[in-house]
Amino acid sequence: MPKPKSSGYGNEMKQESGATTPRRGKAGAALDARAATRLRVLNCIRNTGEASRTDIAAALRLSPATVTFVTSGLMAGGLIEEVAQDPPDNARRGRPRVALRVARGRFHVAGIKVARQSMSVLILDFDGTQVVEKEVPLAEARMSAEGLVAAIADGVKVACTGLPGGIDSLAGVSIGLAGQIDADARFVHWSSSLTERNADLAPLLSRALPCPAFVENDANLVAKAEHLFGEARGLTNFLVVTVEYGVGLGIILDGQIFRGERGCGAEFGHTKVVLDGASCQCGQRGCLEAYVGSYALLREAHDAHVVTTPTAIDDLMTAAAGGDARAQETLDQSGQIFGMGLSNLINLFDPERIILAGANYRFDHLYTEEVMARIGRGVVNVDAPLPDIRVHQWGNIMWAKGAAAVGIEQVSALKVKEMANAGA
Ligand SMILES: [Zn+2]
């Protein structure tokens, strides 16, 4: 299936920065500028929690008249609301102080992480407050595009059951999938959740859901969540390596997710580490993931005739701890290949920090002194200290939280654009 040219609902934030804004006439440029200012004001209010118009003008270096105009538009659109603040004792006279905050109870955004056996659905109010958290089982780990979209729509409906306003109060659904994904086009080149390649999810999602839907590589969502809520707050250049069934990478450069031109970048798990080596779930050979992903470790253990056939990484670790040399060798090989891969990442990106993340994986064998030594030997500049490398394990629900955070950004951008197009 050829990839469509039009982008649909993808990466609205990119346009806000002007980086990919197509050439437009003067009227169009004015609309874009107005939407961009609205988005800046909305984000300022969101980041502050509550902000007065004076605070916003000072923070964004806008005139009071501009702030008044922009905030009245955002209020009319239902995106923000006024809240009375207690005046300080020495300022009881005069007009009561009024602050602005992101409107509550009107728009909701769903974040979804599709895993192999289940799907985590998180619904946030537009101000970021968590409203619903639901784990929905999946009938199969790999489905057709139609089947996956139907399962997502069903999961969203179930999660919305107790929501005032039901599914119609959703302003957006943000979906995290493993694989090579062009977020802009909502086009999946390949995913371990799909039985088919080159799936155009855009028309399927438009038919199945009553609101805009966004699709993103799940490692990017973890990187986003680490940036907003986790171990990477305040950092601008960092990497998140996700290790589970497969191995993913989220790259944040200058504070932004790096996606590559076609959404096919950051495939750390499919970088080649052994010439014509072990076969990978992507169909190629010698990929890092084919030595580190949980499926690969269990396969290695099976091929190496580990005494008790393990069915989970925990079993393999227990066998190694119990003196099974083959189990230990399997884990050691995985750690050494992983360390080699991390040193390559450091040579390429020179990040401030690398976060190893995964919900259902044990990192014991990937975070040892031997692995750190391997990384040190592989990094070109051995005189400088290695970047900070740390493990941050969290559940699927945190991946869904990252998805919802991206969804709120995308919905915000869409809403201000709609206002501009409506002439508001
Ligand atoms: Zn591969």
Could you explain how this protein is built, in words?
The protein has 424 residues and is of the alpha/beta class. It has three domains: 12-105 and 412-421, Orthogonal Bundle (Arc Repressor Mutant, subunit A), CATH 1.10.10; 108-222 and 398-410, ATPase, nucleotide binding domain (Nucleotidyltransferase, domain 5, 2-Layer Sandwich); 267-351 and 360-393, Nucleotidyltransferase, domain 5. Helices cover 40% and strands 19% of the residues. The protein has 13 helices and 15 strands. Strand 7 (180-182) and strand 8 form a beta hairpin. Helix 2 (26-48) crosses helix 13 (396-421). The longest helix is centred in the C-terminal third of the chain and has 26 residues, at 396-421. It is globular. It binds zinc ion. Zinc ion (ZN) binds next to loops.
What key phrases describe this protein's structure?
single chain, 424 residues, alpha/beta, Arc Repressor Mutant, subunit A, Nucleotidyltransferase, domain 5, 3 domains, 5-stranded mixed β-sheet, 13 helices, 15 strands, 40% helix, binds zinc ion
